[in-house]
Specification:
This protein is of the alpha/beta class. It has 3 domains: about 120 residues, N-utilizing Substance Protein B Homolog, Chain A (Orthogonal Bundle), CATH 1.10.940; about 55 residues, 2-Layer Sandwich (Alpha-Beta Plaits), CATH 3.30.70.1170; about 210 residues, Vaccinia Virus protein VP39 (Rossmann fold). The chain is about 45% helix and about 15% strand. It has 19 helices and 13 strands. The strands form 2 sheets. Strands 5, 6, 7, 8, 9, 10, 11, 12 and 13 form a 9-stranded mixed beta sheet that branches. Strands 2-3-1-4 form a 4-stranded antiparallel beta sheet, covered by helices on one side. Helix 15 links the parallel strand 6 and strand 7. Helix 1 packs across helix 3, helix 3 crosses helix 5 and helix 4 packs across helix 5.
């Protein structure tokens, strides 16, 4: 497809994203389904450009404001600024895109540089909201916060988790390489594989046969921290689509029982389908009403995973549009919900049982502070030794007391927090 036509599609997609509040990945997928004539290369180039604009939106708007202040949200101006200042495309090439900009306007936009913006503001420089930058700086300091934000602006790797009920990682790796995929084992998870290029894996026979699932390496490590045994009864109380649920089932060798709870029926139906494809039969799916706790299971679980709903700040590299929709008020609402969930569902755990509380948030307000408040109110729970659990997987170095903090700039994973607790009586 000609560059001018691709640019036209990009502008159309940006305009849709500006008026539609659904997650960007849902909108982009729907956009492509309605335009089957777009080839895989065209789709990849379009997605990269649009996601790139969402990642760098605040910086791009600052560039545009220097030339045409009333056009800071105009798709064509944002697209031109992205091509010129992020992708470093020449002004002459940008003019071939047939954008509704004058050649002099493109030239004026191109001659700007970062010093023209006075980039002493880290939030502007990295394109993140100031409130989030300030919160992370309080936790990590300025220099590490900058490295973290830069990492969150990088596209994430394509990572899969091998279903060890059907294949070893080595076998799956060899099969993918035979099919021409460039891939390598993950550094931390014993069952993960990174693929070098974005590709549609859902059409592969290996996927249809249940050999693997798409799952970030950080998410895989959270399941390893629970380290469930084959004879355990486990509750995944916020199961969602079931990525971690399926991993727990594989770790349990398809034995024992996993109770997968959620309050949204379509998520659980998706989990059922995924479990069938993976050949997993030890998962008991149960739809709950909001705030419902299964009374018949109180004190019965050997382990509980609470993968709590959160702000999602740790996965902004996958969902860059979310950083412009997340607010401090939303974080406070999430924190209240998280405290409610852990207080309610901890009652399912038997004495001596293990509870892992996890989020894909970077904020202490949703992580350590939630756990500290819970322990202060529940003297029959205590922090456990995360390193002792992870030693089985040669991952003890990831632990900090009872917790793990996975950061993109340190480990290349999505951002995750997880802590392990024990019920003493």
């Amino acid at each position: 497809m000609r560059s001018s036509s691709l640019a036209g599609h990009a502008l159309e997609l940006i305009e849709i994203l500006q008026r539609d509040q659904r997650p960007a990945d849902h909108i982009i997928d729907a956009f492509f389904r309605q335009r089957r004539y777009l080839g895989s290369h065209d789709r990849r180039e379009l997605a990269e450009s649009v996601y790139g604009i969402l990642r760098h939106l605040r910086l791009l708007q600052a560039f545009v404001a220097k030339v045409k202040p009333d056009a800071v949200s105009h798709p064509a101006w944002l697209f031109a600024a992205y091509k010129l200042h992020i992708e470093k495309v020449s002004p002459e090439t940008v003019q071939t895109y047939s954008l509704p900009l004058l050649p002099t306007e493109i030239s004026d936009l191109a001659t700007l540089n970062f010093t023209d913006l006075g980039l002493h503001n880290l939030g502007l420089r990295t394109s993140f909201p100031d409130w989030l930058v300030a919160a992370l700086q309080r936790q990590l300091g300025e220099s590490e916060t900058e490295r973290l934000l830069e990492a969150l602006n990088q596209p994430p790797p394509l990572t899969i988790r091998v279903n060890i009920l059907k294949a070893t990682r080595e076998t799956c790796l060899a099969k993918l390489q035979e099919r021409g995929y460039e891939c390598t084992p993950t550094k931390f998870s014993p069952d993960g594989i990174h693929l070098a290029k974005r590709t549609n894996l859902f059409s592969l026979d290996l996927f249809r046969e249940g050999w693997f699932e798409l799952q970030d390496e950080g998410s895989q490590i959270v399941s390893l921290l629970l380290d469930p045994k084959p004879n355990w009864r486990v509750a995944d109380v916020c199961a969602g689509g079931g990525g971690k649920t399926l991993h727990l089932a594989a770790l349990m060798k398809n034995r024992g029982e996993i109770f997968a709870f959620d309050v949204v029926s379509p998520r659980l139906e998706n989990l059922r389908k995924r479990a069938r494809r993976c050949g997993i039969h030890n998962i008991r799916v149960q739809l709950l009403q909001p705030d419902e706790v299964p009374a018949n299971l109180l004190g019965q679980m050997d382990a509980i995973l609470i993968d709590a709903p959160c702000s999602g700040t740790g996965v902004f590299r996958r969902n860059p549009d979310a950083k412009w929709k997340t607010t401090p008020e939303m974080v406070r609402e999430m924190t209240a919900k998280q405290k409610q969930i852990i207080n309610q569902y901890a009652a399912l755990l038997k004495p001596g049982g293990r509870l892992v509380y996890a989020t894909c948030s970077l904020l202490a307000e949703e992580n350590e502070e939630v756990v500290q408040a819970f322990l202060a109110e529940h003297t029959n729970f205590r922090a456990a030794d995360a390193a002792a659990i992870l030693q089985r997987y040669q991952l003890a170095h990831l632990a900090d007391g009872s917790a793990i903090h996975l950061f993109p700039h340190r480990y290349g994973t999505d951002g995750f927090f997880a802590t392990v607790l024990e019920r003493t009586s």
